Backbone:
């Protein structure tokens, strides 16, 4: 995502910052805590990376996209809200920006796949987004399984679900097509649930809304998209880390 050349697929050549827990916010029932129901149905069957790749590719952006949204965040420390934007350079790069009223409380992050290139300020980004599969899921994009993960699948005439397991870490996706379609992502690390995202996508491919819940906080982030459009390219400064 973070290349100085805006006319080609951005590939970063920057120092790798330590992994940032992006938007650590999930609340089970409207900031009230509680448990989330299991995401994937009983009956998952062994599958493979080769089998899941066509499904991932069907939802992955193939070009450059720009989104604008309104956001509202709540946790036990209070509530905040404002507007934000996302620059997505398919298939795997994005810049995510949020700000409060009148431009206050700005935060931004640049991400390629499941790795943050930079986040500014880091502590505010950490409060907003808990890991990268969840961040991408808020934009309607599933990430493929990490190397060495076991892949399992469930499908019927209404939905398809995938589960990626490596040790005590699990990423699950459920996709229900339609108008709107619905993508749900659930992430656990070390056996502990990090968060769950539910994103609604219009038949046209435009993003409609997304909700991130983090039961352990508890916290909730609601996003309402009001603009989604394709772009021929982005200006070079999109990928530059803002001054602190």
Residues:
């Amino acid at each position: 995502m973070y290349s100085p050349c805006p006319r080609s697929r951005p590939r970063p050549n920057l120092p790798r910052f330590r992994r940032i827990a992006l938007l650590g916010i999930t609340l089970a029932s409207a900031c009230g805590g509680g448990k989330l129901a299991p995401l994937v149905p009983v009956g998952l069957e062994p599958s493979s990376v080769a089998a899941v790749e066509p499904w991932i590719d069907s939802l992955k952006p193939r070009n450059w996209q720009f989104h604008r949204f309104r956001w509202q965040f709540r946790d036990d420390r209070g509530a905040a809200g404002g507007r934000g934007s996302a620059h997505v350079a398919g298939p795997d790069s994005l810049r995510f920006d949020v700000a409060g009223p009148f431009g206050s409380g700005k935060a931004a992050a640049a991400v390629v796949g499941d790795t943050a290139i930079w986040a500014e300020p880091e502590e505010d980004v950490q409060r907003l987004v808990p890991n990268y599969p969840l961040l991408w899921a808020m934009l309607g994009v599933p990430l493929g399984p990490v190397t060495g993960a076991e892949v399992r699948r469930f499908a019927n005439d209404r939905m398809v679900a995938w589960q990626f397991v490596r040790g005590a870490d699990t990423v699950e996706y459920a996709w229900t097509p339609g108008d709107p379609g619905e993508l749900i992502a659930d992430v656990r690390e070390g056996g502990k649930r990090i968060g769950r995202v539910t994103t609604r996508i219009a038949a046209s491919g435009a993003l409609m809304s997304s909700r991130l819940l983090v039961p352990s906080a508890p916290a909730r982030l609601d996003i309402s998209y009001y603009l989604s459009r394709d772009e021929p390219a982005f200006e070079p400064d999109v990928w530059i880390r803002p001054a602190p």
User: Anything to note?
Assistant: Confidence is low (pLDDT under 50) at residues 1-34. The helical segments are 49-59, 122-128, 132-137.
